């Protein structure tokens, strides 16, 4: 099954898939522990000092690979998000900012964890993250697409894209930007991304799905051997028939010639200064 087909199968029935994921023993146990114990947390110190709760919360916000940064995250939580000088706002990472907004001890104090909305929101995020991870074991492209759908709408600038490796991978793949551009100065990468897309389009559901379709087509094109029968028989056709389009500043742009050439296996070089 192609990346876009697998993604759409899950995305269109997300609540059903999340319910299935939530019933898995390891997920159910983690969710139950969080629900029963997060109310005991009164401040940033309490959260950091409970590894099970801290790791759970970090994973829920896509920060599972940074649970080692306890000192940094303690500062993030203690400073809150009200001030523009707060660490969460200065780091330009939408996941860290969302984490700090959810656990805003600086503004709400001990009442932060009494919110049923907070608890259900974090549990849903954790379950979604687990679902993405499970899907990634079968097809990393599906994991990236699901992650992008959840997190891209909160991106407000190209710096936010550069701060999130998963978002950046999707954008680079969809637009044919070489990952080698990461060696360039951040400001150069920032200008390149602004030239190639309109960040606000990610907040439009139709344009967001169009961008994910383009990513999926390019991901399969880059991942499958273009000389194989399975590729020529379904990979290229699937990408074209899906109309892998992307929303630009002047409206929705259809599959351009360079994309079709890539899908057909006639790769064109795409190097950016």
Would you mind describing this structure in some detail?
It contains 17 helices and two strands. The radius of gyration is 20 Å and the shape is globular. It has 273 residues and is mainly alpha-helical. Helix 2 (14-22) packs across helix 10, helix 10 (116-138) packs antiparallel against helix 11 and helix 15 runs antiparallel to helix 16. Helix content is 64%, strand content 2%. The chain has helices at 3-11, 14-22, 25-37, 44-48, 51-60, 70-79, 87-90, 94-102, 105-108, 116-138, 140-151, 158-163, 165-175, 186-196, 205-223, 229-241, 257-263; strands spanning 246-248, 251-253. Strands 1-2 form a two-stranded antiparallel sheet. The model is unreliable at 226-273 (pLDDT under 50).
Give the number of DSSP strands.
2
Alpha plus pi helix count: 17
Q: What are the low-pLDDT stretches, counting only 5+ consecutive residues below 50?
A: 226-273
CA radius of gyration: 20 Å
Secondary-structure element sequence? HHHHHHHHHHHHHHHHEEH
Largest sheet: 2 strands, antiparallel
Structural class by SSE content? mainly alpha
Helix content: 55-70%
The N- to C-terminal Cα distance equals: 36 Å
- Oligomeric status: single chain
- Strand % is under 5%
Shape: globular
Strand order of the largest sheet: 1-2
For the residues shown, what is the average pLDDT?
84
